């Protein structure tokens, strides 16, 4: 998945559910805090499948199980 698409998906879902999201830019990554979940997204244009899966699963506590599948 492309980095920009992942960030758009997360931002849209957070906005729809009224969850606070903060972003801090580091030297080689972006640190996101969505509700109580904190994780790092690398600055690669294309994320590896396992990176994407880990991030999406980390957000299940905030958005619900399988939230990215429901559109």
Précis, in short:
The chain has 71 residues and is an alpha+beta fold.
What's the SSE blueprint?
Elements lengths: L2 H15 L3 E5 L3 E6 L2 E6 L6 H10 L1 H4 L8
Antiparallel strand pairs: 1-2, 2-3
Structure report:
This protein is α+β, with helices and mostly antiparallel strands and 71 residues long. The protein has one domain. The chain is 41% helix and 24% strand. A hairpin with a 2-residue loop joins β2 (29-34) and β3 (37-42).
Q: What order do the SSEs take from the amino end to the carboxyl end, as H and E?
A: HEEEHH
Structural class label:
alpha+beta
Which overall shape is indicated by the principal axes computed on the Cα atoms? globular
Percent range for helical residues? 40-55%
Q: How many domains, in number, for the residues? A: 1
Termini separation: 15 Å
* Main sheet properties: 3 strands, antiparallel
Tell me the strand order in the biggest sheet.
Answer: 1-2-3
* Gyration radius over CA: 11 Å
* Strand count: 3
Mean pLDDT: 92
Low-confidence stretches: none
Strand content: 15-25%
Count of runs of 4 or more consecutive helical residues: 3
């Amino acid at each position: 998945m492309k980095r920009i698409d992942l960030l758009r998906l997360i931002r849209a879902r957070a906005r729809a559910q009224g969850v606070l999201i903060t972003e801090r830019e580091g030297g080689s990554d972006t640190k996101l805090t969505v509700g109580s979940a904190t994780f790092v997204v690398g600055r690669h244009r294309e994320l590896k499948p396992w990176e994407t899966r880990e991030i999406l699963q980390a957000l299940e506590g905030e958005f619900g199980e399988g939230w990215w599948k429901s559109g």
